Amino acid sequence: MSSFDYCIGVLESLKLKGIATNLDNTINKATTEKISHLDFLKDLLVSEVNFRNERRLQRNLAGAHFPVVKNLESFDFYRILRISGEQINNLQDFRWIDQHENLMFFGPPGLGKTHLSIALGLKAIEAGYSVCFERISTLIKLLKTMEIQRSSSFRINRIMKSSLLIIDEIGYTPIDRKEANLFFNLISELYERSSVIITSNKGFDQWSEMMGDEIMTTAMLDRLLHHAHVFSLEGDSYRIQEKMEV
Ligand code: ADP
Ligand code: MG
Predict the structure, then answer these.
(1) Which pLDDT score, from 0 to 100, does residue 240 have?
(2) How far is the CA of 199 from the centre of ligand 1 (A)?
């Protein structure tokens, strides 16, 4: 067996796939550019670090369960009132995640609440944070079945461990008392431990009606709003505006 094949075998058994993949290139580069031994080693280590970072990014992206990919570059801030590109840019330092603060996007359908949440979630993943996305209806289903279904408890565990949970579409479907209680417990567990982004088409004043329990809703909003950036979007639905422009 050649030394090269031996090295590849050992690298693979040590799970150093980044180095294994780049060994050939790095040797060629070292030969043509007369790179020192130390820099050769450094190049190999950099390829392993890059490989692992890329794999972690892909794993976090897949684990986030984004329904579609949206980015901030394609978001037109002129279309909506009460939120500026600068405000969203400032959020990209992710100090709010480090400090376990929440973001709340309120407003009627079609104003880009889901778009902004996904785009910020993606940027957070790129910055190294773990993110989970769920519609409230799915989240409640997971909470209701976590005792009896492994896939649900697995997902809830991931949600509990992530640095950011995005809960989309609160307000579209009614929530009964038992469900609201499960949701309240989740929010309490996450409080001051991780960040939450919430999108809702219903204002705070309508939340108790939606959840059927005023005291619990107040307690939940108290936790959500304690450290929160609230954005109440106004404007015309992007979906409708787009149709009218055609
Ligand atoms: P909401 O969650 O507020 O109902 P969405 O985020 O689902 O709205 O937006 C509806 C559609 O319009 C999506 O395809 C989204 O990408 C697009 N959209 C909404 N607002 C904007 C905007 N300001 N700039 C670009 N695309 C937008
Ligand atoms: Mg939406």
Answers:
(1) 74
(2) 12
User: Which ranges constitute the DSSP H helices of the chain?
Assistant: 3-13, 17-33, 37-64, 85-91, 95-98, 113-126, 136-145, 150-161, 177-190, 207-211, 214-226, 238-245
Bridge partner residues of 160 (DSSP)? none
CB 171 less than 6 A from any atom of ligand 1: no
Ligand 1 center from residue 112 Cα (angstroms): 3
Under 8 Å between Cβ of 159 and 132: yes
Instruction: Confirm if 121 and 60 have CB atoms less than 8 A apart.
Output: no
204-207 own/partner pairs: CB under 8 Å, 24+ apart: 206/171, 207/170, 207/171
Residues of the chain with pLDDT > 70, as a percent, come to 98
Asked if residue 172 has its Cβ within 6 Å of ligand 1, the reply is no
Q: Which atom from ligand 1 is nearest to the alpha carbon of 199? A: 2
What the block records as the tokens of 131 is 């993110």
109 touches ligand 1 (CB under 6 Å): yes
Rounded to the nearest angstrom, the distance between the alpha carbon of 8 and the centre of ligand 2 is 48
Which string of DSSP letters, residue by residue, matches 170-236? ETSS---HHHHHHHHHHHHHHTTTSEEEEEESS-GGGHHHHHT-HHHHHHHHHHHHHTEEEEE-EE-
pTM for the full predicted model: 0.89
Q: Which residues, other chains included, contact 72 with Cβ-Cβ below 8 Å and sequence gap of 6+?
A: 88, 92, 116, 119, 120, 123
Q: For residue 79, what pLDDT is reported?
A: 76
Contact 106, 232 (CB under 8 A): yes
